[in-house]
C-alpha cells in the first residue's frame, strides 16, 4: 500500500505543539482592521488551540 500523503491545506493551517495539541490562527484578521480596537486585534492575532471535535479530523489529515 502507498504512503499516506499529508493534506497540503491542513499542514499550512495547523501547527503541532510539543504536547501534541493542534494550534490554529484565529479568524477575523484579514480585513476591516481600522474599525477593530487594538486590544481586539492583539487578541485575534494570537494562536488558539483547536477544539477537541476538530482535532480528530485535523490529525487524520496531517497523518498523525
UniProtKB/TrEMBL annotation:
Q: What is this protein called?
A: Large ribosomal subunit protein bL35
Q: Which PANTHER family match?
A: 54S RIBOSOMAL PROTEIN BL35M, LARGE RIBOSOMAL SUBUNIT PROTEIN BL35M
PROSITE patterns the UniProt entry points to: RIBOSOMAL_L35
The record, for InterPro entries, names:
Ribosomal_bL35, Ribosomal_bL35-like, Ribosomal_bL35_CS, Ribosomal_bL35_sf
| GO CC annotation, single | cytosolic large ribosomal subunit
What's the family?
Belongs to the bacterial ribosomal protein bL35 family.
Lineage top rank: taxon? Bacteria
Key words of the record: Ribonucleoprotein, Ribosomal protein
Q: Quote one Gene Ontology molecular function term.
A: structural constituent of ribosome
User: Which GO biological-process labels does this protein carry?
Assistant: translation
| Keyword Repressor assigned | no
- Pfam families named among the record's database cross-references: Ribosomal_L35p
Lineage, please?
Bacteria, Bacillati, Actinomycetota, Actinomycetes, Micrococcales
